[in-house]
Amino acid sequence: FKESTIDSDNSTSYAKLKDIVKEHNPQVIPKNEVGKILPWVHVAISNAKRLLLDIYHDIKPEYLQNYLNEFCYKFNRRYFGENLFDRLLIAVVTYKNQFRCNNG
């Protein structure tokens, strides 16, 4: 990450980025412009939040990435069109299990 440059809004949640990346360029975006700048990003983030809060409720941190991976797959699959089955087959065949079951 030390070679990365990140352009973001001026949210306080990004305050520690300056310690992790080479350069962080926060920009103040007026409230009336927020929906015009990267509108699909706001839609995707809003949809991901709703999915995680409404459906899964209590998510353990170790499984969060799996839930986000599922969301990204579902979000992107609308572009698969006629190749949907082929893409699903590839996903099933190349899937790597990222979690373990503890039975005792």
Overview of this protein structure:
With 104 residues, the chain is mainly alpha-helical. The chain has 2 domains: 1-31, no CATH class; 39-94, no CATH class. 44% of the residues lie in helices and 10% in strands. It has 4 helices and 2 strands, in the order βαβααα. It has a two-stranded parallel ribbon with strand order 1-2. α1 links the parallel β1 and β2. The longest helix has 18 residues, at 39-56. The radius of gyration is 18 Å and the shape is extended. It starts with a strand and ends in a 10-residue tail after the last helix. Residues 3-76 form the ISXO2-like transposase domain. This is ISXO2-like transposase domain-containing protein. It holds the Pfam family DDE_Tnp_IS1595.
Silhouette: extended
Total of DSSP H or I helical runs spanning 4+ residues: 4
Q: Return the domain count.
A: 2
SS elements, strand count: 2
What is this structure, in a nutshell?
This protein has 104 residues and is mainly alpha-helical. It is 44% helix and 10% strand.
Blueprint of the fold:
Layout: E1 5-9, H1 17-20, E2 23-27, H2 39-56, H3 64-76, H4 84-94
Parallel strand pairs: 1-2
Helix pairs in contact: 2-3
Question: What key phrases describe this protein's structure?
Answer:
two-stranded parallel ribbon, extended, 4 helices, mainly alpha, about 100 residues, about 45% helix, 2 domains
